[in-house]
Amino acid sequence: MSRNRFQKQKRNLAPLRELLLPVAAFALVVGLFVPALSSVSSTARQAERDSLEAAIRRSAAHCYATEGAYPESLDYLCSHYGVQIDEERYLVDYQVFASNLMPSITVIARGE
């Protein structure tokens, strides 16, 4: 059978349709997944910051119960009570007023 090369031939679009549906479904799943992942990550960072602040408060209270005075510095808590702070990720403000008053403790995440 001979073909007429001047006559338009119909293209078969079935393979294109079969490819388009999975690609669209994948794009939809990724579009829903990325914002949810960002929200979970933000919540985890906040929980980690809260956990660090609570650990510092517990260690200061433990120091008061053991030694009869709150620690004079954050370095004392780190060296004697095992508090570990990732200084690249968190800035800790530790203000002491008196040896018998709980220090003001603020933990701020860097880069927020």
Notes on the protein architecture:
- The chain has 112 residues and is mostly helical.
- The protein has one domain (16-109).
- The protein is built from two helices and two strands; from the N terminus they run ααββ.
- It has a two-stranded antiparallel ribbon with strand order 1-2.
- The protein starts with 13 loop residues before the first helix and ends with a strand.
- The model has no long low-confidence stretch (mean pLDDT 85).
Keywords:
two-stranded antiparallel sheet; 112 residues; mainly alpha; 55% helix; single chain; rod-shaped
In whole angstroms, the N-to-C terminal distance is: 71 Å
| Helix/strand order | HHEE
Strand content: 5-15%
Mean of pLDDT: 85
User: What can be said about the biggest beta sheet?
Assistant: 2 strands, antiparallel
Compute the number of helices.
2
Order of neighbouring strands in the sheet with most strands: 1-2
